[in-house]
Design a protein that fits this description.
single chain; mainly alpha; Double Stranded RNA Binding Domain; 2 domains; 12 helices; globular
Length: 244
């Protein structure tokens, strides 16, 4: 029955162009196109903004957990002689918002987001859609096949993992390490949460020893903290090795 549905979706459905895009992206035609279309529907576009099942938020939640597990196993097998600290850092680098945004962009998910949403596209929406897509794949295929698709069609095609090995753009972690070496306290203060283009936006300040050092804003709280941390590092003249 699933195969019949897949053939119908690819050749006869009113959504056949969408089905072909999904086929090119992840290598198969879904039987349940609705779930995959939902993966690209941001809550600001949803007909019922108060109902979680009409946007990709729930799929994003599911995909986030799946990605973390799949990436952990992938790294465990890829680096058999590496310690837990290295594996933890590498997993963080891969599943962090910035990396997922870049992977989604390389996959062309931005095109689907632009087509199915009537709001301005942000970088975080790309990574969120990638997580939601992984959640949709899991609901369609189960864990074993989802793991294979994520590794072969996403990680191996769209991620330069070797470039990540020596890369450190976790500005929040760098700033925390510097403050610990200098015996200073660091905190992140939410200055304002406001609506912009029907979406929540966060304004965050980095506070060191009680002094506000830098401020940044973004649609994602963690992204705002990273941006504020980067500004603080520049302002304080901190080099990559933590020496001013």
């Amino acid at each position: 029955m699933s195969l019949v549905r897949q053939v119908y979706n690819l050749f006869f459905s009113s959504q056949k162009s969408f089905a072909k895009r999904i086929l090119r992206t992840i290598g198969f035609v879904p039987a349940n196109l609705h779930i995959f279309k939902l993966a690209f529907t941001h809550k600001s576009t949803s007909d019922n903004k108060s109902h979680a099942s009409t946007s990709n938020e729930r799929l994003e939640f599911l995909g986030d957990a799946l990605l973390s597990t799949i990436v952990a196993e992938y790294l465990f097998k890829k680096y058999p002689n590496s310690n837990e600290g290295f594996l933890t850092k590498m997993r963080s680098k891969i599943v962090k918002r910035k990396t997922l945004n870049e992977i989604a962009d390389d996959m062309g998910l931005d095109v689907l987001l632009l087509e199915y949403n009537d709001t301005r596209l942000s970088d975080s929406m790309k990574g969120n859609a990638l997580e939601a897509l992984v959640g949709a794949i899991y609901l369609e295929k189960g864990y074993r096949k989802t793991k294979a698709i994520v590794i072969r069609k996403i990680l191996m095609r769209h991620l330069n993992i070797h470039a990540l090995e020596d890369k450190d753009d976790n500005y929040k972690s760098q700033l925390l390490e510097w403050c610990q070496k200098k015996g200073r306290s660091v905190d992140y203060r939410l200055l304002e949460k406001f609506k912009f283009e029907n979406r929540d936006r966060f304004k965050i300040a980095v506070v060191i020893n009680g002094d506000e050092v830098a401020v940044a804003e973004d649609f994602n709280k963690k992204s705002a903290e990273q941006s504020a941390s980067k500004k603080a590092i520049t302002s304080l003249g901190i080099s990559q090795n933590g020496i001013t």
